[in-house]
Design a protein that fits this description.
Blueprint: H1 8-11, H2 13-23, E1 29-32, H3 34-40, E2 49-52, H4 56-65, E3 69-74, E4 79-84, E5 87-93, E6 95-100, E7 105-109, H5 113-118, E8 127-129, E9 135-137, H6 141-147, H7 156-162, H8 166-177, H9 184-192, H10 202-213, H11 219-227, H12 230-234, H13 245-256, H14 262-269, H15 274-283, H16 288-298, H17 309-318, H18 321-339, H19 343-361, H20 371-376, H21 383-398, H22 405-417
Parallel strand pairs: 2-5
Antiparallel strand pairs: 1-2, 1-8, 3-4, 4-5, 6-7, 8-9
Helix pairs in contact: 8-10, 8-11, 10-14, 13-18, 15-16, 16-18, 18-19, 21-22
Length: 418
């Protein structure tokens, strides 16, 4: 019998209290989904979701009687969040789909565990753990988990027709948990329905892609997405640019201890074209910070690894250091990939690494004078003020920030008298 009874997370007092509450008086609650899946795979368990035969109103009533805080996070859809000892547990009534249109579903509450399992997306996400820790598998998820096979429950085409986002979820879960070749039925169904991705909200699409790009190694998933045309549907910018940089980037991350960065990985597979990236950010509804990250990279010139310190400092002053960092990281990845057979590339890796260290320590100096100083020097307000300030700032940069305020004011006076 497969069980999670001995796992520390399952023995947690707060969880035990919730399960006892749900199991009383003919009710039943089971942990479902990611917590069970990750526990069986030896991975960290984070959020704990629970399915129950009780109606949401009954969950709220029982929680109130037990002095447990209940938050109606999605009560119309059967979900209540119980907070015990500061820990949230999402409780959802068993459901069956009544109507679906590929973007949303209308559900009816149920007490049928099989119906609840069969409406879920992937077999590995439909594993339950009852209050005694026994794992309940109604759809063949345990066998798939053992083989690291990512498979839709039942007919893959039907599951995708219920929610088109499941196309991307198939590849996201393959990136995290899959092995070998993706399930053939799943691949065919995803390829056949790929045009339906366009019917989804941009926010849902980017959220799913961002999670996929955050996987320890998204390379194989991206490769299969490209093979069957899914990647072009989501990121047409990659079509002539490719995803060949991903293996080298992941290898570099592992060696240098860089944490997985979805946006850096995105930058590795799209061209550094500011106009196209601005459209990408708008199309996928990226946050302002995410869009700025990509544009900072696109607007940063290619950095030579043999650049002088003074010239590099000037470049950092003129451009967003985050964009410079992305340029250097991607260049370092390319150099590391070539370094195994090219001694000069090994030296280049070292130089790029030192430049990255310099970026990390960089603090932008403040230009010592302002337009107000120009006005005080008797220069009339207008374009000439800007022209003089730009000239002086360039002289300050050419002097590697060595001119102090007094020197710049003297120079300003000279120019004002001309």
């Amino acid at each position: 019998m497969t069980s999670v009874a001995d796992e520390a997370w399952f023995r947690d007092k707060a969880l035990r209290r919730v399960l006892s509450l749900l199991d009383a008086d003919g009710g039943e609650g089971r942990v479902v989904g990611g917590a069970v899946r990750n526990s069986l795979m030896g991975l960290q368990v984070a959020d704990i979701d629970i399915a129950t035969t009780l109606l949401p109103e009954a969950v709220v009533e029982r929680a109130a009687a037990a002095g447990i805080k209940a938050v109606p996070t999605g009560i119309a859809h059967g979900t209540v969040t119980l907070v015990v000892d500061g820990k949230p547990f999402e409780i959802t009534t068993l459901r069956r789909d009544v109507e679906t249109d590929g973007r949303r579903a209308r559900v009816a509450f149920s007490q049928d565990w099989h119906a609840d399992a069969e409406r879920r997306d992937l077999t590995i996400n439909a594993l339950y753990a009852s209050a005694d820790g026994k794992v309940v598998d109604l759809v063949g998820g345990l066998a798939d988990l053992e083989r690291r096979n990512i498979r839709f429950i039942g007919d893959a085409a039907v599951r995708i027709a219920e929610d088109h986002l499941r196309i991307l979820r198939f590849f996201r879960f393959f990136a995290y948990y899959g092995s070998g070749r993706p399930d053939a039925d799943g691949l065919r169904a995803c390829a056949a329905a790929k045009s339906k991705i366009a019917t989804l909200s941009a926010e849902r699409v980017w959220s799913e892609m961002k999670k996929l790009l955050a996987a320890p190694d998204p390379g194989r998933a991206l490769l299969w997405m490209r093979q069957i045309g899914i990647l072009t549907e989501v990121l047409p910018e990659t079509e002539k640019w490719g995803i060949d940089a991903i293996p080298g980037l992941v290898a570099t991350e592992n060696v240098l201890g860089w944490p997985p960065e979805p946006l850096l990985r995105l930058a590795a597979i799209v061209p550094p074209d500011a106009a196209r990236l601005a459209k990408l950010a708008q199309r996928l509804r990226l946050s302002k910070a995410e869009g700025a990250y990509l544009l900072a990279w696109a607007n940063t010139p290619v950095v030579r690894d043999d650049i002088s310190e003074a010239a590099f400092d000037r470049l950092l002053y003129r451009h967003d250091p985050s964009g410079v960092s992305v340029r250097l990281k991607l260049a370092l990845v390319t150099a590391r990939t070539k370094a195994e057979s090219d001694f000069e590339e090994m030296a280049r890796v070292a130089r790029l690494g030192k430049l990255l260290e310099r970026v990390a320590k960089w603090k932008k100096p403040a230009f010592p004078i302002s337009g107000a100083d120009a006005l005080a020097a008797g220069i009339s307000a207008g374009p000439r003020v800007g022209e003089l300030m730009a000239r002086l700032e360039q002289e300050w940069l050419d002097g590697n920030f060595s001119l102090n305020r007094a020197s710049l004011l003297a120079r300003l006076k000279e120019l004002a008298d001309v």
